[in-house]
Amino acid sequence: MSRPPAPAAEPTHPPAQVKRLRDRLRRAEGQVRGVQRMLDEDRACEEVVTQLLAARSALDQVIREVLSERVSECVMTLPPEEARAAVSRAVGLLVRA
Asked: Is the pLDDT of residue 45 over 80?
């Protein structure tokens, strides 16, 4: 027997934050496209790796901002036990990364 679909989650990010996140993601996307071009051009390993690290850093910043916002929201709005569980899940996500 199948379950009914879960209700859609309420948006949790204010528009200004969404813009910042999208800007960071576009920057990372541009860096990854740059790496593809560099590989096609047979650029030096050090240059390619430097660009890859920059893309990873941009993505790491998005992850930190999304998780930070969510954890702050949980701590302020949830009962203590639920907030602890949410923080624990967030930490688990970071450890997996």
From this structure: yes
Torsion of CA 51, 57, 59, 60, to 10 degrees: 160
Please indicate, yes or no, if residue 3 is contained in any of the structural domains: no
The confidence score (pLDDT) of residue 8 equals 44
| Side-chain half-sphere CA neighbours of 75 within 13 A | 9
| pLDDT tens per residue across span 49-82 | 999 999 999 999 998 888 888 888 888 888 888 8
Q: What is the CATH number of the domain that holds 91?
A: 1.20.58.1000
CA–CA gap between residue 94 and residue 53 (Å, rounded): 18
72 falls within a domain: yes
d(CA 59, CA 55): 6
Residue 74 lies in a domain: yes
Neighbours of 16 (CB within 10 A): 8
Q: Where are the alpha helices (DSSP H) in the chain?
A: 15-40, 45-77, 80-96
